Structure formats: C-alpha cells, structure tokens
Amino acid sequence: MTRYRDKVVLITGAAGGFGRLAAERFAAEGARLALSDLSSAEIITPDDALALPCDVASEPEVATLITAVLERFGRIDVAVNCAGVLHAPAQLAELSVEAFDHAMTVNARGVFLCLKHQLPAMAAAGGGAILNIASAAGLVGAPTLSAYAASKHAVIGLTRSAADEYARMGVRVNALCPAFAATGMINEMTDRLAPDRAEAEAKLAARIPMRRIAQPEEVVEAMLWLCSDANSFMTGQAIALDGGLTAV
Fold first, then answer.
1. In the chain, how many domains are there?
2. Terminal Cα-to-Cα distance of the chain (whole angstroms)
C-alpha cells in the first residue's frame, strides 16, 4: 500500500516500541520520515529519513526539531507523538514526587510542547493529522500506575482541546489508547511482577476480556489508519485499543 506516498511524517519516540515499528510501516507506505528520540543514534533510519535527538520535555529542543523538519521537507503532514515513560509500579501513597513529576513532565508536558509547535506549522500548510499515543490508563484508573494514568489523562485532555481549536484550520488531532502491549516498556513492568515473564504477562492478560495483551503490530496498524486520509472526519477522539478492558 502507498497511503503515505510523499507525505512527511514526524514520529517522536522513534527509537523503540511502537515508534520504531511505526517508522518502518510508514516508510513502507511511501512516507518521508522525520524521526526523533532522546538519542538519534538509537534510531533505525530508512533512506532519506531525518533523524534528530530531542527531549520532548524541553521546549527549545522541540522547537529546534520542528524547525529542522520544516527546513528539510517544507511541511509536516502527519505527526505521531509517541515518546513516553512508565514508572515503577507503586501504590499511590508510596509513589515518590520525583516519579510523579517525571511521568507528567515527559508524557504530558512533552505532548503539550509537541502540539504547541506542530499545530501552527500544520495550520500554515493547510492542515494535517496529529496522533498522540495515550493509553487505556488515560481512560480508566490504573492501580499502582497512578502518575502514568494521570499523565495519559492529561494527554487526552490536550488532544480534545487542540482538536477543537484547530479543526477549522484543517488539522485533525486524535489519541490512541492501547492497553498492555508486548513492548520493551511493558517488559520492564512485567519483570517486576513475577520472575517469569510469561507468568507476569498472564497476570496482565487476566484483566483483559480477550485474555491476551496486544501485539505491537496491532497498535501500529491502528496508527496508520487513524492518520490516513481515509479517516477524514474524526478529530478529538480517544480511541481505545484494549481487548475490551475499558468496556466493562
């Protein structure tokens, strides 16, 4: 398929997890890629891709990233804000202020700063699509992951507000809310739940009606459709991709 032929796609958090796989899939469908993560050395870059380091919690670095993309490609058609962190599981009363602040700074402030600089660029070019990667934890509570849940609730609030503000300028802004998926981030958490990773994943899957966790390919497939021209009348939505977790 060539849904993204010659479209400029910016992906933050492109060095691992959903971001890395998304970069591969967008490239396979013809996109011209701009990729960022904390270290550009960790990014696998297809031919002609722009790879830059960027701490999404730093406004100067985000501003530099957007300027570099515009100087290289002239516009941004799609932005996938995928950069994020997870904290060690802990009851809320035992969670450190530092862990809370880190989750909010990277996950919420990071998306805010990306939106702040992406939206005017897209509006000036006549439109575009932004997808913020939130979480099912942004739709419901997440025991032992309260700071992460709070940050992802914030991402959804930012998504809906930005969508309302920029809809008349041709910019669509949505959020994708996956539940547990087989990524490095979840592996870090499962390693703390049980000594055997399969046992830990089974504990997570037991909370999901479909009785399994998602595969990264399933999440990225949804990302590709949500950002595509085929999804032309959706904006301001938080789409759960969670095996039924938030349905009950």
1. 1
2. 36
Task: List the structure tokens of 142.
Answer: 């997440």
For 36-76, the pLDDT digits (tens) are: 999 887 787 777 899 999 999 999 999 999 999 999 999 99
CATH number at residue 87: 3.40.50.720
Q: pTM for the complete prediction?
A: 0.94
**Between β-strands 32-37 and 171-178, what pairing exists: parallel, antiparallel or unpaired?**
unpaired
H helix or E strand, kind and range, residue 174: strand 171-178
Cβ neighbours of residue 228 closer than 8 Å, sequence gap 6 or more: 3, 4, 129
* Distance separating alpha carbons of residues 247 and 215, to the nearest angstrom: 19
Q: What are the per-10-residue average pLDDT scores of the chain (248 residues)? A: 93 94 96 94 81 97 98 98 94 98 98 98 98 97 96 98 98 96 72 68 87 94 98 98 93
H or E stretch covering 148: helix 146-166
Q: Which of 132, 84, 81 is nearest to 235 (CA)?
A: 132
Which of 4, 18, 148, 166 is the catalytic position? Answer: 148
* 148: annotated active-site residue: yes
| Domain membership flag for residue 3 | no
Residue 240: which H helix or E strand, with range? strand 238-241
Here the tokens at position 98 are: 């530092």
Per the domain annotation, does 2 fall within a domain? no
- The maximal CA–CA distance of the chain, rounded, in angstroms, is 52
65: domain range? 8-247
